[in-house]
Every structure is written in C-alpha cells, then in structure tokens.
Amino acid sequence: MPRRRMIDPFFWNDRKVGKLSRDGRSLIIGCIGQADDDGRLQADPAFLKSAIYKYDDDLDTTAVKELRDKCLSEMSTWPPTHPYRIVLYQSSDEEYIFFPNWNATNRPSHPSKSQLPPPPPESLPIFSGPTPEEHPKASALGQSSLVKDSIVKSSAVREDFTKFIDSEKDLTDFLTTTLEKYLPRGPTWAVEVLQQLWMQALGDRIKGTALEVTLKAVREYPPPVLAIAYAKAVKYRGGKYDTAKYIKKILQEKSEGYGKGRSPPA
Predict the structure, then answer these.
(1) Per-residue pLDDT tens over the stretch 155-197
(2) How does DSSP classify residue 112?
(3) Mean pLDDT computed over 243-257
C-alpha cells in the first residue's frame, strides 16, 4: 500500500496543470497517491479505474484509458523538469507510469525499494539536485563545500565542475568530455550535465527561455560546441542581461565552420 503523499500548493496554481480537464487533474492526484517511493505505478486502465475511479460509474476502463492517453499527450509538450509530468513506459508487455521528477515533491525519509521494473534511462529525472530555495545564497564565489558536495552527490550526473571554474579552457575540455560521456544516454542527460555546471558555478538552475534554448541545443549541437558555449556563459555569468540570447549567439558563432573533422573556434 502506498504511503501518504504530498500535494504541493503549487499544483493548484500551475497553469499547465490547470489546462488539464477536471478528470485529468484528478488522475494526476490519484497517480501521486498510488505511486511507490520511486514514483512508479501500474498504468493498466483496469488498475487505474479500481484505484482512482472506484466510485465513478460514468468512467469505465475504456474511458480511463482515453483519459490517461490524453493526459500523456498534453504533457508531452510540458518542460521535462515539470514536477507533475508523467511518462508511460513498457516492460515485458506491461505498461507503467513514472514521475521523472518525483523527488521534487515527494521525498520519503526511508524509501522502500520499488517492486516495479525501472523506466528506460531517457525517462530519468533531469533535475534531481537541490533547488535554489534550498540553497538561496549559493554562488561560485561564496557557496560552502557542503553545498557543493550536496549538489554533486544528489544528481544523477555526479561530476564536479568546481575544480575547473577558474580556467575557461580546462572547463571547456572537461565539459566536452563529460557531454560526450552522457549525451549517448539521451538528451535529458546532456541537459542534466549543463544544469549541474550551472548550479555549481552560479548557484542556480538554467530556467525560463534559457532552459528552452538548452533543451533544443542538446539535440542540435555536438558536445564541443555545447561545451564552448556553456563554459563561456558560465564565465560571463549567463551574459548578464539576456542569458538565452547570449547562449544562442555563442552556439551559432561556434558552430560555424564546425564539421568535416574540424574543431570549433575557441
């Protein structure tokens, strides 16, 4: 039986959640209540019907499946970092639901090991580290070693960029190697690499329009170009005024002439 779960007040004010139908919102809440400590649950419509809509005679398993699939379709356009986004995956011909960013809202103190098969690597969380609210004063110049250590250890990407922050060249080289290591696992892993760099160097996460640029960039640019752009962005603190525009400018500049065995201009 699942434990008690938390519904953040943020849930009711979230615009994307608000665009779901009333039944869609109740489905998400029901999935939160039925998920195990890793944010996984069965996705079979019969299970969802019995567990969430037990007393709703107007919703049969066919209607529940349609509702589930509609929610999944709408959520496919949500930012990968959204705490209430769900994904569907299969294992041995069985379907399961997974909250990629489960730990953003639910962190059991003594979690039980999941009895359900794990989701594929591309569904793993993009942000699993501390939020800015947890470390509001963290910065490249002033964050404590405890904060740095917690950022590195709590993420799916366990790389320490702080050793290279003072040298743009060394940081670019290390970031290139790190991206080449993680990008084959999927674009979400590359985003996590860049998020960890940003968090460790600037004490905050990439967000807003800059995050949208990043999500697109990891699918369009090779690791050397990404590394140069984001190392420079960190050095100049995100371009000071318009981080998204600054990153796009560097990416476009450094990608020109890249290819046919040539390295991007530094």
Answers:
(1) 567 789 999 988 999 999 999 999 998 888 778 788 889 989 9
(2) P
(3) 87
| C-alpha to C-alpha distance for 145 and 151, rounded to whole angstroms | 10
Q: What are the extents of the domains in the chain?
A: 10-118, 145-255
Residues 34, 35, 41, CA angle at the centre, nearest 5°? 95
What is the C-alpha to C-alpha distance for residues 5 and 51, in angstroms, rounded to an integer?
15
Q: What is the pLDDT of residue 264?
A: 60
Q: Report which secondary-structure segment, H or E, holds 252.
A: helix 243-255
Note the pTM of the prediction, 2 decimals: 0.51
Topology of 10-118 in CATH? Answer: Arc Repressor Mutant, subunit A (1.10.10)
Neighbours of 84 (CB within 10 A): 24
pLDDT of residue 19: 94
Tell me if residue 41 falls in helix, strand or coil.
Answer: strand
Long-range contacts, 112-120 (Cβ 8 Å, 24+):
112/36, 112/37, 113/37, 114/36, 114/37, 114/38, 114/40, 115/36, 116/36, 116/38, 116/40, 116/41, 116/42, 117/91, 117/92, 118/38, 118/40, 119/40, 119/87, 119/89, 120/89
Length of the chain: 266
Taking the C-alpha atoms of residue 230 and residue 196, their distance in angstroms, rounded to an integer, is 11
Q: Beta 40-42 vs 94-98: how paired, if at all?
A: antiparallel
